[in-house]
Amino acid sequence: MICIRANKKNAEATRAYLNVHKLMDKQHKVVRRNSFIYFPISRIDDKAMQELAVLGAKRSKMRFRRSSARKEYRQTLLRKIGYPEYNKITKSYDLIGDTAIIDERGENAKKLAQVIMSVNRNVKRVIRKNGAVSGIYRTRKFSHVAGERGYNVRYRENGIILQLDIRKSFFSPRLSYERKRISGLAKDFENVVVLFAGVGPFALLIAKEHKNSNVVAIELNRSAYGSLLDNISINGLSNVVPVLGDAKKKARNYRKFADRIVMPLPKDAYNFLGSANEMARNGCVVHYYAFSKSKDPYSSHMKRIRSFFSRHGKVVRFNSKRIVRTYSASEVEIVLDFRVFRQQMVK
Fold first, then answer.
1. Which CATH number fits domain 2-61: 1.10.3660.10, 3.40.30.10, 3.40.190.10, 3.30.70.2580?
2. What are the tens digits of pLDDT across the range 106-154?
3. How many Å apart are CA 102 and CA 215, to the nearest integer?
4. What's the pTM?
5. CATH 3.40.50.150 applies to domain 172-345
6. Cα separation, 110 vs 28, whole angstroms
7. Which residues contact 89 (CB under 8 A, 6 or more apart)?
């Protein structure tokens, strides 16, 4: 059957992309062979293949075994403990390292945790979200459901290792593909600034894959900054400059420094365009994330960005735009990639 072949290094990013865009065929087992991972898919189109090509993933063919034994086991377990239907299981949790994160509450949370830990031997703990992401640090509260206690996780993604306390730092495994995409666009010998760097997923990957680049990672949250320092050390990187503080204030130290700026703060990125403008060299590439309505998600943001830079004597040229993921029934997260030029230098 048709499948997607990815090398092991980019397997997690490929899996994240396929899951976010609901392309995985859950009825068949993933195949690992030599240095490649083969993902069974239910459908694919040219646009998805173009985006997956960023990861070096290719369309292929493979003979897959149906996951009927595991499915039957899960269904038997579900009937036994009285949990809702089977097909909700794969949509019911995120996995960061050995920690499963669920939304379920009450007795169903314990039942779901039992199912997850019974069929996934790598999961050592299950925790529950208590509310939405909130505050300037974009954190949320969690509570223990099953397994080992604790909230410190160790996660490997795209060849880098990340450690963090998920209660104190924002992190989403669903952005794995996006982090790999940005690193693939970056070039050697660039000066890169990552605003809202968190524990370092964007900054560390760019630094690792572009040893001759200088990467500045700015983060306001002191706890996330502490994890960023640890992660720089764990990954043995010498070309990352960690900066603790408010991006609006720290931008002053990097005037006309950046060849590339990453702005992964979809709720408030517009408020930091002034910082981006201050740091950007002529021709700087900006990766701008935002929440938007599902209907016509791009035009209003593009208009605001053009208007902002025009007031500062700059011209914007958009390179690409894409929906990163569905955020709610009516909202999506988007990314706009654009370059900023001084007006007099644009023909």
1. 3.30.70.2580
2. 888 888 898 888 878 889 999 999 988 888 899 999 999 999 999 999 9
3. 34
4. 0.88
5. yes
6. 27
7. 74, 78, 112, 115, 116
